Structure formats: structure tokens, C-alpha cells
Amino acid sequence: MFSRRVPSDLRPNALAERRRRAPAPFDLTVSNPTACGIPYPEDLLAPLSRPSGLLYRPDPSGIEAARGAVAADYRRRAAEVDPRRIVLTASSSEAYSFLFKLLCDPGDAVLVPVPSYPLFEHLAALDGVRAVPYLLDPADGFRPALDGPLPGRVRAVIAVHPNNPTGSFLDARGAEDLREACRGAGAALIVDEVFLDYPLSRPDPPPTLAAETDVLTFALGGLSKSVGLPQLKLSWIVASGPAPVVEEALSRLEFLADNYLSVATPVQLALPLLLSAGAAVRRAIRERCLANLGVLSRAVSAVPALAAPPPEGGWSALVRFPAVVAEERLALDLLERDGVAVHPGYFFDFPSEGWLVVSLLPDPETFAAGASRLVARIASHLDGAGPGGPRSVRPRGD
Fold it and tell me: Where does residue 233 rank: exposed (0-12), middle (13-18), buried (19+ CB within 10 A)?
């Protein structure tokens, strides 16, 4: 009776079931900035109450003033974007759905990075598209490792810049490798830049890929991350590349969007002021992430066997530990014995065991307590690991 686009087994995994029964007091997986004590301007949402929002203004690509605001926002990233090449959507997930519909027939494929956010496989399946993984090499700073020509029927390559959860930016070499692969296969490049405003290893973000000229490219962004407002449901697609194919893509995207008209008028009208006021929110989120990253680095450095590879950007961090205990067992131990919630690496398709993923968003007190318990729990497993002796892996004193 039911489509194969929806998984046949929707039962929660062991970690989700455990968290459903008893929420973790030290949740290091939270990704909702509005639930983390981030300071927001009290009047940030005031523009939503404009009387002009009472007039329904259906525009498939988005109200002209809203698209102009997005284009203006790209100028602070030193990128010139034509507002006519912008399409507004209700979310990044909807943007992916539009692009899969635009580029793929049922059974076609999109190349997705691994490790990365596991949503891609579900989004592709919901549109009858296959998600084919390509490796981000841990030994090479999580840069793309494309091996030869793209497989048959690949219509797009997805990159996340910076990647979630590895925090790795797409550097010039990696970007050119992806462009070359797209050129060879006649495929489009989809670049998810929702975390681009949050550099952690440098003062300013690297260049956006929203103004490409060589390959048909779609850059994604949205209020969920750039202003920390996921509840407002507004994202965007910026199309770039050779002019004739971009114009054809935009006409088809307009047809797709016209069948949904999903973006609310009030948030479009408020967008110029939201993007302007969002600078304060971005600054607060970045400061929180940098502070928590420092706490994590200090905690992990107390155990020589552990490592926390410095993320270049985003809201997440990694903890690398010797695979003396399975990731899922460790994550369950942390939940049941320490009240700490983390993501095991296999959630994100890491190529080997021994990875944990934590969010850098929690309030500082929660994060510090959770990080301390996390390191102590791993150290307790290392103490019983056998050769080398327990004292070689005990936390060092301050």
C-alpha cells in the first residue's frame, strides 16, 4: 500500500528510544539556537507584524524586495549576486527537493559527501532519487576524494561548505575537483552554505560559491542558520554558471515554486530588517561556539589518547577516540551513566569507528559539565583497554 520512498521501519534506534524515556540533562546534540540561551534582540521579530503582510503577494520566486535583500546580504561576503537569480523557499530541505525535481528523473542519482548530515539520503529518496556517497578524506582534512569519473546517471554533486559535522571548508582545490567532475558528467553543483557565516579557525568566512561562471551551480542559505531563526521558515537558492543554462534552470524553478507557493508573505517583507539585525545574533552564536570549542579542546587535551580536530567552521565539533569501545555503546554509556547526549560518528557515515560528534551551541555551564563527563567516561574505557596500562591514559592534571 505504501511507497518505498518512506522507510518501512520507522522505529527509533536505541539511543533515540533511551532519550525518549529520559531526556539527557547534559545534551551536547542540541542544534536549535533558540533553545540554548543565545541572546536575541527583543524587537527582532517586530517586522513580522507589518500591516502590509495582510495582503497576500504570491510570487513563485519570492517578492522582489526580499530577493534584493538576499543579494545585498551577499555583498558583505564580497559576492555580486543578481536578485533575478534567487529563488526563495520555505527551508533548505524544500530547496533540495526543488533541485532534485529540477535536475533528476526517477532513478537518477546525486553525489553526497560522507561523513555528512544524514538527511540527504532521506531527501533524495523522497524524490525518487538515489544518493551515492563520495568520501571526505579524514586523512586530508576532510577534503573531497573523488575517484575517477562520476557514476552513471549522476545529475548533481552536493557539497556542504563548511561541512556538517566535520567543520571543513571547501577549499580552492576541492572546489575545482568538484567543478571538474561536474563538467565531465554534465552535472550541476549544489553547495550548501548555511553555516558559512560561522568561521571558527579564521576571522572571516572563505568565499561563497554563489557567483560561479563555469558550471551550473546552486548555492543554498537561509534564516535558520544565518540569523538563528529556524522557526521563520525562509531559505534561498542562488543560481549561477553559464548564462543560457542558468536562465533555463530559473524558468523551470519558477514553475516548480509556483506549484507550492510555500514562503509566507510576512517573513518575506520582514527579510531586509531581519538580515540586517541578524548580525548581532550571528556574533553571539559564533562567540558561543568559539568559547565551547575552547572548553572542549582543553578537556580533551587532558587525555593523550584523545583528539578534537579543530573545525574550520560551523556549529559542531568532533572527538576522536581509540576504538576500544563501540561508538553506540559509548554513547549509551554516556546517556545512562552520565546523563550526556552525543552523536556517534556512524550517524554521519564516518568511514571508521572512534568518532563522536557534539554541538557547540549549548549554554556554557551545560557544555562544560557535559564535556568533562564525556572525557572522563572515555578515559574509564581506556583504563580497561589492556596493553599500555591504565595510568597511560588517565587524565593529566591541570
Answer: middle
Alpha helices in 302-346 (DSSP H): 327-333
Residues 170 and 141: beta-carbon distance below 8 Å: no
Whether residue 167 contacts residue 316, with contact meaning beta carbons closer than 8 Å, is answered with yes
d(CA 208, CA 187): 20
The pairing of beta strand 154-160 with beta strand 188-192: parallel
- In the chain, domain spans: 14-37+279-393, 57-277
Spell out where the chain has E strands.
26-27, 86-89, 109-114, 130-137, 143-145, 154-160, 188-192, 217-222, 235-240, 316-320, 340-341, 343-344, 355-359
Hey, is 24 helix, strand or coil? coil
How many residues are listed for the chain in this entry? 398
pLDDT of residue 385: 62
- Report CA dihedral (355, 360, 366, 369) to the nearest 10 degrees: 40
pLDDT computed for residue 392 by the predictor: 35
C-alpha cell at 393: 591514559
Q: Which grid cell sits at 282?
A: 550571528
**Rounded to two decimals, what is the model's pTM?**
0.94
* 3-state secondary structure at position 324: coil
pLDDT in tens, 253-289: 999 999 999 999 999 999 999 999 999 999 999 999 9
For residues 386 and 380, what is the distance between their CA atoms, to the nearest angstrom?
12
Determine the Cα–Cα distance for residues 209 and 203; give it in Å rounded to an integer.
19
Residues 154-173 have pLDDT tens digits of: 999 999 999 999 999 999 99
Q: Which H/E stretch holds residue 300?
A: helix 265-301
Helix (H) or strand (E) holding 335: none
Q: What CATH number labels 57-277?
A: 3.40.640.10
The third-level CATH classification (topology) of the domain covering 14-37+279-393 is Aspartate Aminotransferase, domain 1 (3.90.1150)
154 φ, ψ (degrees, to nearest 5): -80, 120
